[in-house]
User: Fold this.
Amino acid sequence: MTQRKKTLILMKRNWVLYLFLLPAVIYIGTFMYAPMYGLIIAFKDFTASKGIMGSPWAGMKWFTTFFHTPRFWQILGNTLAISLYSLVVGFPLPIILALIINNINNLKFKKFTQTVTYMPYFISTVVLVGMMSVLFSPRSGVINTLLSYLGGSGDTFFMGESKYFRHMYVWSGVWQNMGWNSIIYIAALTGVSQELHEAARIDGANKLQRILHVDIPAILPTMIILLIMNCGNVLSVGYEKVYLLQNDLNTPVSEVISTYIYKMGLQQQRYSYSTAIGLFNNVINFLVLVTVNKISNKVSGTGLF
Assistant:
């Protein structure tokens, strides 16, 4: 019996399982793959009256337009700066938090710590930016009030000065997501064999040495997989938070690809142009993902595929 016939027999025998899978397949096909048809307009002079197929072909016109726009390098640089800053700061901190929580012996305090660190994740972006506006207000904000007591000016406009934008964006994101991102590492740490820790104790290893030589090697594959996935989003800085924090004073450092696409596409109705930028963004992310995954496979033997 051929492998194909064996597969068909197994599918027929387990048809109920495939029936349960069908809604997910339909959902992904309808909302993930079908809209990709619209990417064609990145290569056309799209007008709504003519439709996608009726609009004339433009070739690489819109890609060339984006590459030659005076703000191209500024927008690309801002996107990379924020993304790499977020990756460098936001990737290791959840690991450190998970290691700390995992080594708390008091069960009640451990659960309390987990709850407190998870809670910010459920705050919406709009509410978070509103909280930041209140806390960093140049007149009545808590931060400026504390700075004035410590001898500072007390009237710093954190939300408007360009030099503070990236720090506020990244560290507010770390505060909001660190606890939630640590969940997967805590779950991985629960699978570490206690026999390894007992053997390390017998050999005279202290807690820090057990973390370095037992815990971290055990969760290293998980760390590598998540790092690869994060690298695959290197140009995907979400527009919502950036757009809410953005104003005329910090635009030189806050304009990123996603906000530029939003403004070109929805505000100026340049649909072909914005689609071309989005396609460029996704292609670069895909190439980075494949490259980092290949390097990871060669160096550590761990990868997504």
